[in-house]
Amino acid sequence: MNIYAYICFLAALSILLGFITSKISARVQSTIAITAAAMVCSLLVWILGSFGWFKIDVIAKNVMEQIDFKSFLLNGILGFLLFAGSLGVKLPVLKDQKWEITAFALISTLISTFLIALLIWTPANLIGLPIDFIYCVVFGALISPTDPIAVLAIIKNLRAPKRLSMQVEGESLFNDGVGLVIFVTVFAVAFGGQDTSVANIFSLFMHEAIGGILFGFLLGFIAHVLISSTDDGSMEILITLTIPTAGFMFASNILHVSGALAMVVAGIMIGNWTRRSGFSEQSQRYLDHFWEMIDHFLNSLLFFLIGFALLLVDFEFYGIVLMIIAIPVCLISRYLSLWIPFKGMQQFRTYNPYTLKIMTWGGLRGGLALAMALSIPSKTAFAGSIDVKDLILVMTYAVVMFSILVQGSTIEPMIRKSKTVDPNREEYLQPSKH
């Protein structure tokens, strides 16, 4: 069978699995349930394979390798997921939270990247694993972006305070784009032989980030003009499809700018400007429904593949030790990277007292981190005699699974408590003290 056939069957399995888990437990968020079920299935496949049953583990691993999880996400569905997510961002609320989202998405991501690198590099060398610091920075860059798809659904279902919800949602969208830019920049230095001068690194970062944002504005404007010039509802929706398809590919593969940031910017423009003045009445009704269906379908498939990505991970002694260390390190770094800018902003605003806790515990890692880890070339960098890619992949998988299964399934009580602090009033502006 070809890759398309594999994806068709896996997509059907992910939907069937989502249907079954929803019948078993309606309280568990679907993406969490699908990931858990897929991980159990992959463990079962591994166990059966270890007994020599039809070499089912080899077959399953071969399928996962042929699909190429990295290309499937980074060069495929990522554009759809980010565009669909940004369509629902309300610009007035985003403007009100612009400084918080900027600080969390940019400053916190940078702090987290280097803090994780330091906290992984130090114990690794203490246990006799001579891993270069730059490779620890690569891990910090790929694991710092949050991917709170599952927790966003919980926040929306529970109707968390709007400002708190926007902080999580806005940070996650821009965080993905910024994090991917940071990873591409660090990756070029670690594996691409790029000049390590500050000026060159800054130039790489700015080209990806600013270029992606500007191209996103251009995409959004062109789509707005085309949509405004027709009253054909079907054509209007089809035009939006060109953004995460041709638009994403053009940004990433031809202009070599951040396609992720371009999708977020274009999505916000279409979801606010075009929604208000460009779409026909029919399209306004169907826009959200159409993209919610695409988003739900691709998320189901993505989280199903995350569960089965276990088959691609090789567990060794040093990898297991670092895997155990990586989980608390990422949580601590996430908290501290948010706490630093948060304390500064508290001088000017009063926030819901659960904001920092929810953003820390609700900052899930997902498919983006795994895809970036899988993009690292094999057998090009070593820590002693161990392939650096294997070490980074096992740490990444551990953090991703812990965040989805443990953090994602236990965030709900915290969100409920945030509503009881002041049920009739959300976070409010506090007059400047200066």
From TrEMBL:
Keyword Kinase (UniProt): no
Entry superkingdom: Bacteria
Cited InterPro entries: Cation/H_exchanger_CPA1 (IPR018422), Cation/H_exchanger_TM (IPR006153)
Keywords in alphabetical order: Antiport, Cell membrane, Ion transport, Membrane, Sodium, Sodium transport, Transmembrane, Transmembrane helix, Transport
An MF annotation (GO) of this entry: potassium:proton antiporter activity
Stored Gene3D superfamilies: 6.10.140.1330
Main location: membrane
GO CC aspect terms: plasma membrane
Entry similarity comment: Belongs to the monovalent cation:proton antiporter 1 (CPA1) transporter (TC 2.A.36) family.
The protein's name: Sodium:proton antiporter
Organism: Haemophilus paraphrohaemolyticus
